[in-house]
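Q: Predict the assembly, please.
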Amino acid sequence: MDIYINIAYLIAAVCFIYGLKMLSHPRTARNGNLISSFGMLLAIVATVGLNGTEVNGVAIQLNWMLIGIALLLGTIIGAFFAIKVEMTQMPQLVAIFNGFGGAASALVACSEFLKISDGGSFTLIAISLSIIVGTLTFTGSFIAFGKLQGFISGQPITFTGQQILNALLALALVASTVMMVMGIESYTAFYVIIGLAALLGIFLVIPIGGADMPVVISLLNSYSGVAAAMTGFVLIGNNPGSAAGNALIICGSLVGASGIILTKIMCKGMNRSLANVIFGAVGGEVEGGGGSGKEVNIKSYSTEEAAMIFDAAEKIVIVPGYGLAVAQAQHGARELAEHLESMGKTVLYAIHPVAGRMPGHMNVLLAEANVPYEQLKDLDEINPEFEDCDVALVLGANDVVNPAARSDQSSPIYGMPILNVDKSRTVIINKRTMNAGFAGIQNELFGYDNSIMVFGDAKDMLTKLLSDIKEL
Amino acid sequence: MDITVITIFVLAIFVGFEIITKVPPTLHTPLMSGSNAISGIAIIGALLSTQIEGSMATWLGFVSVLFAMINVVGGFMVTDRMLKMFKKKK
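A: Predicted assembly structure:
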């Protein structure tokens, strides 16, 4: 019996790996996700099938009623969120799910601790790590959710001695783990670990500004994987012969790796080190750096004038920013793009890595508006395209097109990779007003000779622009 | 025993890095929600922990199955919802 279960877990792991591999292309991605979910179903069925069998001479007796209720309730809640969520709220949803995943891992470790017979130090260290990572993922994710949803201020919340407090919390966690392993007041140490880890999760996320949330969510995603892997070590240490632990270790490592890769990409997109994001407490401060005092003389055009520029253009690149999504103007952008294409022009979309509120967020928002994925180009693909681009249409993006990132060493965004829209023949920038961007700095691009401002709400502006182009 | 487990752990991390680097930026959000669902694999540990005697441990098992299931079902469903929006040009 045991061997079949092990094989089932192995197949499940293969399904996850293959499913993730199929995510390498939008064409195969949906089937890949189905394969992954089949793997999960298989793992669950196999585990439930363990009931009544003996593992190492101990009969497994699952609690059917509790399992049934939990599975049903979990399915209903999970499905409800998955169906109801709006695409702009995806970061919040992923944050909550991360939190639940982390909590589930920590809880398994907790109940393994309670049943422990003669815990070796390997198992106890794994239990402690699993509880620490899982719990801080849980509380950290809920703080991140609160910030994204606007329940908690998106501004970094800081106080003096914050770093010292975090260091003390970490030290106390190490001390409690040592106590638990040595068997000194194990139960007290166990509860102290849970409490301290919960606090650490809160204190680690609360000083991080709203603009840095993509990094935090990616990092928490990674943590939820690490927590699962640690729980795998717990299961193996505490139940020799059980294969469930292997499955957790494999899956947890995959997710951990995925989260780390995304975290790195997000940091690179903002030209920040991970340490700077976590301890820097920026990403919300509104204070212009040096060099922002320059006067910019802007040219403001009406949509009719802009329509004529579009009419003469061959190649157009649309640069969407998060403001576009907030205004729900993606559909307007797509309609404009479709019309321009029907006139025989080339239209591409330039997506900066941090254009949305989480990795790849802007792509999802545009896909929702039926923009074909072939037209979505990332930073490295699109930057050479600006050289022979006639019109770059900047919609609600600001910092990611600010040339100061390339040239002005005193600028707070200096070194950040940007979309080189200024290289195109004409840059048309739509903004509601002349306010500074997320980083709180004025954009010298607006004053460039080839820049034209068209003020107004993105949605209205696009509708007007489209009808003006049609009337020409 | 320990070294086998660590071997699996280290090799899985390498596999993870290899396959995930190949995911294009366009699909990073579905990657995140999908991998998130996979981290719900803790559910198999959670299922097993419901058999532990004692009211406290039993309830911990119940809550962990619940949380993991929310993560699994919600994660895979929302990923599917997103991926089905990614369309090729007509």
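Chain A touches chain B through 118 residues (CB under 8 Å). The longest strand of chain A covers residues 315-320.
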